[in-house]
Design a protein that fits this description.
By secondary structure, the protein is mainly β. Helices cover about 5% and strands about 25% of the residues. The relative contact order is 0.22.
């Protein structure tokens, strides 16, 4: 069948964290919602910045643990972390946001082992995390979408 492409899981090469220099990951957390892509316009960023030195093989579960270390109120079981990558739009002077996964404190999930490399994170992008406390409604479940501009083709 011509025109059909097979989906092949990319194999991630292990990174020797002793020999590889970490990258600076600029993370912006917000309770109950993501920051707006407009908050990243004109060289500005939201004020709630967390700076993490990590590697491209860092998983969403590992990043969740690092956020929980500095935000004690997020340590409660059942707290949801909804991750999105914020990146510059190649066609305009604005930023775009693409959701990449959800983790939950105290529970295993399908997105826990996703790495920055697997979600096509590029050095220089930002990470935006919507934190939903355990006493609120969890984030809505989304259908997986193709990578290109979040539009299914």
């Amino acid at each position: 069948m011509a025109g059909l492409e097979s989906m092949v899981a990319e194999e991630v090469k292990p990174i020797d964290r002793e020999k590889t220099c970490p990258l600076l990951l600029r993370v912006f957390c917000s309770t109950g919602r993501h920051n707006s892509p407009g908050d990243y316009a004109r060289g500005l960023v939201p004020q709630n910045e967390l700076q993490i030195y990590t590697w491209m093989d860092a998983t969403l579960r590992e990043l969740t643990g690092l956020v929980k270390e500095v935000n004690p109120e997020t340590r409660r079981k059942g707290t949801y972390f909804d991750f999105a990558v914020v990146f510059p739009d190649a066609r305009s002077p604005t930023y775009r946001m693409r959701e990449i996964g959800v983790t939950c404190s105290g529970q295993r999930g399908g997105d826990d082992n996703k790495t920055l490399a697997q979600v096509k994170f590029q050095i220089g992008n930002y990470l935006d995390i919507s934190i939903t406390p355990s006493n609120r409604m969890p984030p809505p479940m989304r259908r997986p979408q193709n990578y290109v501009n979040n539009r299914p083709y």
